[in-house]
Amino acid sequence: MRIVRCFAAGIAAAVTLLAQQPPEAQELLGALARTAELFSHTAPELGAREVLSQRARHGDMKVLRRGRHNELKKITFSLPDQFTTHEIVSDYRLGPAGPAGGFHEIRTILTIDHASPAASSAEVRHAMTLGLNDPDDSTKKELLESLELERLQGAAADFGPILLLFTAARQHGSRFTTAGRHALPSGAAAWVLNYRQTGGNAAMTEFRSNAAVKHVPEGQIWFREEDLLPIRITLNADELVAPKYSLRNEAEVDYQPTRHGLAPRAVTHRQYVNEDLLVENRFTYSDYRGVEMAP
Question: Model-level pTM?
Answer without folding.
Answer: 0.79
